[in-house]
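Q: Given only this backbone (117 positions), what sequence would you predict?
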């Protein structure tokens, strides 16, 4: 019973918002699942990079204030070349890439870190 009460107390504790900072850009990792080749793609905020037949736009990259090497999260838009439908639009989190992932038969793309300069 005591264990249950402790768990309820922990769950009821207020969650504090983490202070974050915006970065100038970030680093993504792209894996071609057919060839097995991966590469890192360094991007600036607002830039679009090509990964195979995908166009990846980084709208924002944020990290915990005072810890640029900390858990990055980036807002991305990913479309296939020649197709206006978005394959992905939203936030990807470096520490939990499967939480919000690109669903594509050939490519995996995930956030590695933000860059501050």
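A: Predicted residues:
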């Amino acid at each position: 019973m005591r264990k249950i009460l402790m768990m309820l107390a922990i769950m009821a504790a207020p969650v504090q918002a983490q202070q974050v900072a915006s970065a100038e850009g970030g680093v993504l990792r792209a894996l071609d699942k057919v060839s097995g080749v991966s590469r890192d793609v360094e991007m600036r905020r607002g830039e679009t990079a090509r990964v195979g037949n995908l166009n990846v736009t980084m709208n924002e990259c944020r990290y915990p204030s005072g810890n640029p090497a900390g858990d990055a999260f980036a807002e991305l838009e990913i479309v296939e070349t020649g197709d206006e439908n978005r394959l992905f639009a939203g936030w990807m989190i470096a520490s939990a890439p499967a939480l919000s992932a690109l669903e594509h038969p050939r490519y995996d793309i995930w956030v590695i870190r933000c860059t501050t300069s």
